[in-house]
Amino acid sequence: MKTLLLAFGLLTLFNCNASKTNADDSKKHDSQLIGKWSMAFDNASITRSRTITREADGKFVADNATRIQGRAQRYQTSGTWWTDNGFYYEANIQSGDTIKYKYKVDNVSKLSFEKESSTEEDYKYFEVRQ
Predict the structure, then answer these.
(1) 120 lies in which domain range?
(2) Alpha-carbon torsion, ordered 43, 63, 116, 57, to 10 deg
(3) Is residue 9 part of a domain?
(4) CA–CA separation, 124 vs 38, rounded Å?
């Protein structure tokens, strides 16, 4: 009886994991965003740059550099990305955060991103294809 319950539990667990994978696979990925892109943002107190590679399967890796009041930091982030109804989403594995921006493909070499409402200085930015 214990063996039967264990087998049923494992089967249920595997089915739940398969459903989760299928749900992630159903996310849309605007093919125009796939590839290697870079951005830079600069004002009086902060400088940011980022190079991001978006894959067709929804994964991304980004190399980031930030300088705030002369103090520099470099770090790498990764996770998943997707698009839906004119919005770009990026789920960061390291922080657990998901960002949401309106996005627009300006041309084959330039993307525009804007937060709907934000008090942050970097609510708008552009990426250019590498």
Answers:
(1) 29-129
(2) 160
(3) no
(4) 14
How far is 55 from 8, CA to CA, in rounded Å? 36
- Give a yes or no: residue 19 inside a domain: no
Indicate the SS3 state at residue 38: strand
- For the chain, what is the domain count? 1
Q: Which helix (H) or strand (E) holds 57?
A: none
- What is the domain-level CATH number for residue 108? 2.40.128.300
Residue 18 lies in a domain: no
Global pTM reads: 0.75
**The two structure tokens encoding residue 75:** 């770090």
Residue-wise pLDDT for 63-104, tens only, equals 999 999 889 999 999 999 999 999 999 999 999 999 999 999
Chain centroid offset of residue 61 CA: 8
Q: Phi, psi (5° rounding) for residue 116? A: -60, -50
